[in-house]
Amino acid sequence: MFEFLPVPPEEHGISLEVVGDFERRLEERQVRMHGYLMLSGGRLIAERYWPPYGLDVNHRMYSVTKSFTALAIGLLAGEGRIALTDPVCKYFPDKLPPAGPHPWCAETTVEDMLTMRTCHGSTTYKRYEGDWVESFFRVEPADHIPGTVFAYDTSSSHVLAALTERMTGMTMLDYLRKNALNEMGFSKGAYILPDPYGVSQGGTGLMCTLRDVARTAYLCLHGGVFDGRALLPREFMGRALQNHVPTDLQSSMDEQFGYGYFFWMARKRGFVMYGMGGQLALCFPEADFCLATMADTIGDPAGLQKIYDSFYETIWPCLNISDAPVEPVKPEPPAAFSGRYVFYDNPMGWKWAEIDPRRRELRFETPEGPAALGYGKGAYQTGRMFPGTSYPCECEGEWKRGHFLLRCFVTGEEQGHVFMDFAPKDMRLGVRVTATGEPFFRYFRGFASAYKVE
């Protein structure tokens, strides 16, 4: 059992004054904290709760639940019951439409689900009357090929929780308890809220103590190994905590550093179990350090960022972790981007696109006609305007993890931005575009998919 052995934070290079400064910044920023704790080297160096919460009180952890679902899938894979390359439709024949699934849904693998690269652009059960699991297979896909661009989709984690329960005949949390969490001393009173059809809400339903989250985070920090025993499959954990897909189009800063298997990548060489409203476990393996928090920032759009900033301004400098990039920058474009891609019918109305790395230019066609955007670090469009406007723009292009990311900033009398993510797969292309609310960006919001013609 994992024991929370308290030691003075000074023994781990963090002074009481720094811990106090962390709390003061949270208070000055009016963050409604419910509790936090810090583990360093497996020792408890700080812990505090605000009434009516305490160390034995269950708290809704929201999307922290997704990370638990990933661990359950890892156990299933480690037992050989599933493969990450399996199409998820294979396990739910009773949930498929009578005429069969959409081809992009049929193509979606378990790993696509874990990395939020499904064929959907948002949570399907919020747009479906009926069975939450069934919704994933019956809601029309969001115009993009799975395994390409990132789109946050809680229904993917809900379906994988249902998969766990189908394969084991147990609730997902009981399965995790039996194989790993009981060994860590996970509390017996914890539970996961079910959906209206009895399936554990694997994307948002976890009710547990903050120490339960910390126990699980500590296990993940050590690759699933506790007291010399691999409670979770090592190979799976190695992959789960790697960056698999860029998330640069996310609106919040600390969601823009990539995504693993239902784990976010941290701003500074670590990973995060992240739930709405300030439920966090920031984990940094190099320092064997974890900060776990629970709060209510749901009414404050900047509340979660306030927790992150308070941590990085105070505690982070004491951890002595390298600021070097986790992976080297690879400026050269993948060969898959050469040639022209023609789009399937899509809500944005895009016709075709091609990227010319030599000229550093994206060429494409929207309903307003052909257009081109040059790109480079701080490269203004000399003599050009953003398509459909009379405003000049600045565009920056970047190659990251096999994706081409383009950021465009309109300047002049009107200001706004358009961000684009292009991801190739098997002679095809998935595209995601986000923009500010200006009406002249009407063809630059949404998803699209294309196939290569030359």
Q: What's the short story on this structure?
A:
It is built from 10 helices and 21 strands. With 454 residues, it is α+β, with helices and mostly antiparallel strands.
Description:
The protein has 454 residues and is of the alpha+beta class. It has helices spanning 16-28, 64-78, 103-107, 110-114, 132-138, 154-168, 172-184, 210-221, 234-240, 303-314; strands at 33-40, 43-49, 59-60, 191-192, 206-208, 225-226, 229-230, 264-265, 271-275, 279-284, 289-295, 340-343, 352-356, 361-366, 369-374, 379-380, 393-400, 403-410, 416-425, 428-435, 446-452. A ten-stranded antiparallel sheet has the order 15-14-13-12-21-20-19-18-17-16, with no helix packed on it. A six-stranded antiparallel sheet has the order 2-1-11-10-9-8. Strands 3-5-4 form a three-stranded antiparallel sheet, covered by helices on one side. α2 packs across α6. The longest helix is centred in the N-terminal third of the chain and has 15 residues, at 64-78.
